[in-house]
Design a protein that fits this description.
The chain has 213 residues and is of the alpha+beta class. The chain has two domains: 3-52, no CATH class; 72-209, Jelly Rolls, CATH 2.60.120. The protein is 19% helix and 35% strand. The protein has helices spanning 3-6, 9-25, 33-52; strands at 72-76, 78-79, 82-86, 90-94, 106-108, 116-122, 128-136, 147-152, 155-161, 172-179, 184-191, 201-209. The strands form two sheets. Strands 1-4-5-12-7-10 form a six-stranded antiparallel sheet, with no helix packed on it. Strand 2 (78-79) and strand 3 form a beta hairpin. The structure holds calcium ion (2 copies). One calcium ion is lined by residues 110, 145, 193-194, 196, 198-199.
Length: 213
Amino acid sequence: MSISKSLPAFLHRAPALVALTSIALGTAPLASAEARAPRRAASVQIAVADEARPVNVVVNGSFELPALDDGTWNVFEEIRGWRTAAGPGIEIQRGVAGSPLDGAQHVELDSHASSAMYQILDTQPDHRYLITYWVSPRPGTAASDNRLALSWDGAVIDRYAATDVGDDTAWVRREVIVTAHHRESRIQFADVSESNSVGAYLDEVSVVDVSTP
Ligand SMILES: [Ca+2]
Ligand SMILES: [Ca+2]
């Protein structure tokens, strides 16, 4: 048995641990001036990101759950984070008629018929929240089939109406800032097109506290 093999495992890792600690403290000998600046810059960026990283309070905002088989769709009374508010349910598509914005799945709000879906969010009263969501017309449909309304605590705060429909999805980012009044807030998306089982797609919903402390 060689000497190195007889050493405890932590001693084999010790030099690397020492080096990492030295870099973090800014005391490690660096090979060149070029190397020094990027390392210091990186450590500052990480510290800022940890403190300022926005927290998305939406659960399952990309509609990746439940994961369907490729090339299929289904309509649900509820999915992780979301429940049906009106209509026959929440339709999830996975590679059926157009590409999602994020991940492999998105929602079509006109499922078997016009539907609405909501989620109750944990919020801080009097804090401002940035709502971001992505919407696309369903490919190959009439523009009038692709309209949705976004509500916050029962009040409509944004509307989307497609004007141009192509052969694939054309995702558009929308942003709205709201003020929460309660410790729980209700966000809701509703199809407001002709009720005929085809309508606007929804993906990548996020709600982030943007109040300054
Ligand atoms: Ca998605
Ligand atoms: Ca429709």
